[in-house]
Structure formats: C-alpha cells, structure tokens
Amino acid sequence: MTNHSSLANRNPPQFELSQIKSLVQELYGLEGSFTALNSERDLAWLIRNDDGPQGVIKISNAQEPEGIVDLQIKAVDHILEQEPTLVVPPVITTRQGKAYDWITSDISGERHMIRLIAFMDGRVVEDTPEAYCDAYYYNIGATMGRMNAALQSFYHPYAGSNKHLWDLGHCLQLRDMISGIPEGELRDLLTSVFTLAEQHTLPALKKTRCQLVHQDANDANVMVRHDDPTEIAAILDFGDVGFNSILAEIVTISETYGEGEEDPIRPLLHVAQGFDSAYPLTGQEVDLLFDVMRLRLAMASLIINFRKLNDPEAGTHLEDRFFTKMLFKLNDMGQETVTRRLREALRFPVYSPIDNEGQPFATDQDELVQHREQHLGKIWHFYDQPLHITRAQGGWMYSADGTAYLDAYNNVPQMGHCHPHIVKAIARQAEALNTNTRYMCDIVADYAARLTKDLPDHLDTCIFVNSGSEANDLAVQIAQSLSGHQGGLVLHNAYHGCTELTTKYSPESWQHLPEALHPKQIERLIEPDMYNGPYAGHADAADRYAEDADRAIDALAHRGMKPAALMLDTALCAHGVITPPDHYFDLIADKTRAAGGYVIADEVQAGLGRMGSFWGFMGAGLNPDKVDFVTMGKPVANGHPLGVVILSSKMMKQFIGGTHPLLFSTFGGNTVACAAGMAVLDVIEREQLVKKSNDIGDLLRARLRQLAEKHPLIGDVRGRGMLVGIELVNCREQRTRAEAETEQLITEMIKRHVMIGKSLPGTLKIRPSLAWGEAEVDFFINAMDESLTALG
After folding, report:
1. Which of 93, 97, 290, 663 could, after both became Cys, cross-link 338 (CB 3.0–4.6 A)?
2. Does the keyword rRNA processing belong to this entry (predicted)?
3. Which structural domain range is residue 158 located in?
4. pTM
5. What is the CATH number of the domain that holds 699?
6. Same structural domain, 615 and 701
7. pLDDT tens-digit profile of 272-316?
C-alpha cells in the first residue's frame, strides 16, 4: 500500500475474543454469547445471555484520543437531556462507575478504551428491505433534525478534533487516492468533484450552520421498529460525531439506497423534508445540497474503490452497491433539476442565484408566459418583455438569471423588499396564531391605537380589510349610508381600486369608453396641473381649478344626485405626480362638505412617509380637520394583504347601528397582517424613514434637475419625498409631451437594469422604496443619463 493511501487503512484493534470475554466479565460482570458487529475502525460485539441482549461492547481504535470517546459519550448524554424521547443508546458504566476504561491487547500490546453501550431493540435498516420507502426517509430525516436541534447547544473541546476518513469537511485529505483509480470516467468525475469542493463546496459549507453532528446515520446504524419499518427505533454508533455542517448529516442519511433504486435524489428529497420539519433549513443550505450530495457520493465511491483495487487483502468495510452508480446518475441529473426538485419539495420559492456570480439556471421565458396565460388568462405585465423576478431585497429585484434591477417602480413594499424585521414579524405571528378575526387578540387593538396616535381626535377608529380597494369601497359605502347620497367626485385619470364600487371612482378604468358607458353617479374634476394645465402659472390657480368642483356638484344635481364623497389621492400618482397649487385640496374639500359629502384621503400611495410626511395628505396641504376618512393599503403592511379605513368612532357607531349591523371581514386585520403593519411602524421609526424620504428624495430631484440642463427632453421634475414625477417634452416652450420618447426611455432604462413606470402619456412616475440611499440614486442617475443619451 502506498503512503498516500494510509488514510484508507482501517487498522482495527486486534484482540482475541477470549480476552474480550474475560475483560467484560471483570469490568461489567457480564457473560454470554458475543456476536461481532460491523464497524469501520473499532471492534464491537453484541452480548446476549439468558436474560436477552445486554448491550454492545465497543473497543476503540488505538489512535482514538481519549477526548474523542469522552465527546461521544457526553454528546449522547446531552441529547437525552435535551430530548429524552430520542432513541439513542446511553453508556452503561463499569462496576467502578466509569463510562469507559483502558485495556491492553494481548496480541498487539496496544492500549484501547472499552465501553458498554445500552442495547436498543429493533431491526437494522440494511437488513429490512421494506424500510427503503418515502415514509422511512422522512422519519429518519425528522429524527436527525431533532437530534441536530438538541446538539446545537452542545459544546465539547474535542468537537473539532474527530477527523476521520468520512469527514466531509476534510475531504481533500482523500484527493491523493484518486491516482489509485484507473483512468476513465470515474477518475475524471472524481477529479472534477474534488476540485469543485476545494474551490466552492467547502468554502460554501462554512457559511451554513456548523455544529456537532452525528453524520453517520446510514442504514447500518439505524434501527426500525419490528412492527413498523418506517418508524425509527434507534440511532447507533456515535463514532463519527464531530463538528461539521448540518448538511453533512442530511447527505449521509440520503446515500442509503434500496435495491433497484434509480432516482439518486428520492431519499434526499424525503430526508430533507423530514429534517426541515424539525430543524428548518435555509434557502442557502438547500441550494448547496446538490454539490454536497455529489461530494459525499464521490467520497464513498473513492474510498471503497480505492480499497478494493489497492488493498484487496484488507477487504472492504462497505460494498459499493450504489455509490458509484448514483454518483453518475446524480451528476447527469444536474444541479438545476436537483435544486428545483428540492425547493419544490420543501416549499421554497423558485431558485434564484444569490448574487450575479451565482449559478444561473436556464429559463424558457416563452414557455413560462404560455404556462401563465394557460392557467391565469391573458394578464397585463409592466413591460413588453415581462421580467421573471424570483427574489428581492431592499431597493433591488432579481431575475431568474441573477440580474439585479433597481426598483424605481415600487409602490407596495415601501420599506424595502423583504425587510428582515417585517419578515420576522410575519413569520413569528404566523407560527403563533393566524385565524378568523372574530377572536380576541392583543395585537389588533394595539396596532389600531398606534396607527392613529398622530391623527386628529376625530380619526380614532380603524376598520381592517384586506386591500386598498376594499378600504376605499367600504369608505364610500359608509359615506353613502351616512349622507344618504349616491354621487361621487374624483379627479380625471384617478385610480382608487378594482371593486365594482371603486372602479366607478377610478376614471382611469373607464374614461376611454363611450360617454354612455360612464358611471352616472360620478363627476370628474379637472386636474390641478401647474406645469401643463389650463391655469398653470395663474396667481389664482387654486381658485380657478377648484371652481370645477362647483360645476361637478351642479352636474350631479341636474341628474338628481348629491355627492356622498370626494376621494383624493393627494400623491396624484395617476395624474403625473403633479404639484397642485396651495390650498387647492382644502378648497374642494370645503365645497364637497358644503354639499353634504364626506372627504376620503386615499393614502394607499401617499402615506407612510412616501411624500416626506407620515400622512401624505398632511404633507400635500389638506387640512386634517376636513378629512372624514383615511384609507390605506399596499405598503401599510409592506405588501402583506392589509387595508385600513380610519374614521371617527361616532361615524362608526352610526354605520354599525344602521345599514351594516354585522360588518366584519373574515381575514381583514388578522393577527399576521397586523403584525406586519406593526413591524412597518417599527421600521419607519427606527430607521427614521420619514426624514430619509425627504433627504434622499430631495437629492434625487436635484440630480434629475441637473440632468435636465444636459437633456432638453426633461421638461419638469416634481414631487415630494420619495415620489418623483418627470414630464418629458419635445419642446420646452410649448411643453408638448414626448409620448413616444417616454416609452423608449422606459425600454432603455430596463436595458440598464432600472425599473421605472409611466403615468399620463409623456410622464414618468418614480417611486423608490424608502430603503434607497445615495448609492441607489447614483445608479439611477447614471442609467437615466445613459438612456437619455441613447435617445439622442
């Protein structure tokens, strides 16, 4: 045997059975029959007498440090202390109360440690063909997940010292053995797998959870119950226990295949599901499993084939029943297929590279579009070539190939995509309670109180629903009920929802239709545009624009109706993010209230710091004393389904006592939604996002105005906080909107990985998340500069 192959030498202890029997009688007072058990580096016998099995005697390898044996014993003690129902065998002490003792071989003269391990009843899996089924794999995964959860709090000074042949974390020690494998496919594959291990797999494993792991729950070390081959009866042999990634545990279990198995990852899928049920995996860990599983099979194939070819006299501890075969099958299956199947089995979202250097998977965009249209119908996407987005973080969104897009289209996760504090709040509440809202729970009332604390006294009561559309719909219903009126006032081009009622309040949805199809109870007000409107630049523009409310109220009166509500999005997102003249909102609110209607401030896009103030209508100059309803949606829970109607308790009592005595929403304001909403408020306060909205928003507008000096296509830059409107013009003097160029600019920005959207023809609406900083502003401005230059 060559020097580099010494690692493959098992070198088990050398003892005559007669000496062992004598020592066992002396140390433990036991006699009986001794049945040799299979073991990698140690010696083991099962002892039976007339009373039945008494335990397993184990004699450690001479090279085994005493601290390693102590580690193994104390690991079992810790598991049983943490999880007494786990089926692991404790050590039986000697007559002198020792967990182990020292003995000397009469043959070799070497000193070894001896210990007696309690007998565990059951059938060994490798002798139980019917055990190789999905239920078994799931149960062994769950059992080892529980064991790892118990071991995460265990410490021992020798935890990192138990280095052995099968140690995944030190697999590179085996690489010299590859030269002992004949040239050909196997040798080439082994070489590539170990090269990848050095360059990628091992560094990546260090970023997973590492702790003490058993890492030897193969079919020779697991027992199942006599009456049910899927139920775990015992986990044996802690000889390989050591500090490693928890993924080493999973792949070791998963390399045990039944006769006739052709799918190299069927065990892995079910083992991972079981493990995840007890010790949840992260997406990063799941995405690494293909490489780790392939490495484990490569190690097993190399060790066994090397021994077989280079030291036939020593024989093999394990037969290569499946390792090499499954190594090739797994490699042929490929990372993409394996990772997709794992993510689907564990209910993780579709795979996406961790960063631009991550491994991208092939995507068939046309096939995906066809699949969606087949099952979802023909739906509208933001761009002509829809983006396949698979994950997002902060101000960025990532496509399936790992491309990062700066999200300036954002109008939902306003605190930033997947904000960790909000994500945790949702997960923690969902783990505790998520049910019908008819039950009492603390968080709902706490959230309502916190949400309304800075509003005027008359806005003190919350009704929770599931969306902004529902919130606006309910606000109109209450306004109609309390006023006795059916008419409504909105601005031209407004959008307030998709229910039957809010669609009527959304001219954007119907104003392109013939006038005969326009809702009769709605009147539209001229938009208060101070850049391109009829009264732009007029000193009395507010009065002139507000006079249109008189016309609208009169028009309703001619049809026998009065206004129940004026609904306003003071962000004016659907109107080109125009800036109205001072006092305009107050003027039309006064006219509505004088006609017996209520004022609804639609804060779906204006609120929560978007416009540089917590409440957008206040920042826009609408006197809060003139607001009867505040409605919220979209960002109020950072994208989790939640809508809110805020009104006075007096109005609420009148409505509940009249038209709707049983008003409630089954899921509106459920505990998870309120936890998300509460976490949003935490983030706004802790990260000072209202101030940041002003600071970063002002910076963005200033940089855009600098661009306007270079690019005459930019006619106007406007907005408040993190809301920016850009009007593009062909001629600055005549202010003619550049409609075609607007579409082209959106396309150019996507090429440069920035997502923006349009409002009215010739206008852009830029809605960054409040997570943006100066770096995102720089990226956006550079992309805009290049895109405008490309347009000429």
Report:
1. 290
2. no
3. 6-345
4. 0.86
5. 3.90.1150.10
6. no
7. 999 999 999 999 999 999 999 999 999 999 999 998 887 665 555
